[in-house]
Amino acid sequence: MNIVIVTSCPSGIANSVIAAGLLEKAAASLGWNAVVECHNNIEPAKLLTVDEISTADLVVIAGDNIDIARFTGKRVYQAGVMDAIPDAKAFLQTAAAAATVTSAEAVASQQTQEKPKVSPMSKRIVAITACPTGVAHTFMAAEALEEEAKKRGYWIKVETRGSVGAKNALTADEIAQADIVIIAADIELDLSRFAGKKLYKTSTGAALKKTAQEMDNALATQNVFQGGATAAAAHSGKAELPGVYKHLMTGVSHMLPLVVAGGLLIALSFVFGIEAFKEQGTLAAALMQIGGASAFALMVPILAGFIAFSIADRPGLAPGLIGGMLASSLGAGFLGGIVAGFLAGYSAKFVADNVKLPQTMEALKPILIIPLIASLITGLVMIYIVGGPVSAAMTGLTNFLAGMTSANAVLLGILLGAMMCFDLGGPVNKAAYTFGVGLLASQSYLPMAAIMAAGMVPALGMGLATFVARNKFTESEREAGKASFVLGLCFISEGAIPFAARDPMRVIPSTMAGGALTGALSMLFGCTLMAPHGGLFVLAIPNAVGNVLMYLVAIAAGTALTGLMYAMLKPAMETQEA
């Protein structure tokens, strides 16, 4: 039998790709010829041709928002993408038995229903998801919210604030008609467009792991968002991240692109020789000027500026940038930038809340009064009080890292590696990651190598476990293991979250053991890394990774330990089902 398969999911990344692979494999096991159209955000969908549709005996659609007009006259079966993943073969057999011929009337009905007409008893939800790196948690949380709302029969639309900007953006009409706004974010966002709406704030991790509970909490909230930075803090769910951590992550998320671009450009300058950039007028010198003198020079000011922005909104940005520039010029590095950001943000917030002006002069506050007073306070404190001690601490830290003995290096690697693998993208993971990213500006490249290597281990290890102990995992878990392995290669440790959520007492010790081993070996071998993201794909950039062979050995060793340890600890399926 000839069939065509169409898949889609809310974020267009995980479930859409996984369902496409599972259904294609299941069709082959049934002896059917299948052509797949997978809608995702990784690459443009390869659309079905007219010939492929005309020769198909069956059209299987796993997902929503698929135009069925082109399938008029064909036997079509449509269900949710999550219905296809647990048992793809059974899903196809059900599709073959239950498919019905699509008529012109059915097409017209679908097109009419595309404008949401929700019954009075249903809920309308709009949401935003955002994480510091904007890669995994952002989209996984969006999918979790979409699936939970679908189970309950609610209408929902989720805007994702990923690394490539806002996707699936909410319109003014959708916001106006919404019963509740859910903000699942680990960074600060501008929420002014939600003024007057019931609003519930939580973290991406809570939205992903406790989706039903968080949606219940959101629907139960009576908090109406009034707008403004001060009001934003008052309308939060219990699962929302602590304010200080969230402000720091906002700064880190805006700094990260500068670190990636700057580090890779510096690495490219080394292609022409380690000291080739010293010869003025050469391409190596130009690359170093762009990456080191420009991108890296902006790191600390941007970090401080957006920490302050997170605290005090736009009025805090200028004082934060100024404080960050002072931290750089005083030699206080990223530690000084963090101090300057919080100092500028809370100074600006204090002025905004406490300085009262006549109504006719109120407009001067955000553009004159707040930036002037907050910048003055921040600058004087940085120069006369904070700058010296923090600069000394930063110098001491840099000298310690440069002069570490093998034993100290191994201990630091164990600590950083275990932290990266403890909560899989959570606060502990991000604390270790921020430490490594900040040290790149001080030309300390050892910790970053250990951190990224260890961060790849959880997802790689889970993929390995599903391969070496296949009989202990279900078919859907084995397929999830393949996806996890690919995510691990990309330095997305969140690929291990589905396994950790089901079996945390065995998965987390296994991942921490492997991460600690990888971190220790990376530090022991003296591996360096100049780019804070990209996984194994940064190996394509010459000199981005120092001591490449031993770096790969460290990752392989940690992956093997995690995978084999979990494969041994995980009980057989019969035991689990009992």
Description of the molecule:
- The protein has 23 helices and 12 strands.
- The relative contact order is 0.07.
- The strands form 3 sheets. The chain has a 5-stranded mixed sheet. A 5-stranded mixed sheet has the order 8-7-6-9-10.
- 59% of the residues lie in helices and 10% in strands.
- Helix 13 runs antiparallel to helix 14, helix 16 crosses helix 18 and helix 18 packs antiparallel against helix 19.
- Strand 7 and strand 8 (165-167) form a beta hairpin.
- It folds into 4 domains: 2-112, 3-Layer(aba) Sandwich (Rossmann fold), CATH 3.40.50; 124-225, Rossmann fold (3-Layer(aba) Sandwich), CATH 3.40.50; 243-400, no CATH class; 406-569, no CATH class.
- The longest helix has 39 residues, at 364-402.
- It is α/β, with parallel strands linked by helices and 578 residues long.
- Mean pLDDT is 83; it is low at 114-121 and 229-240.
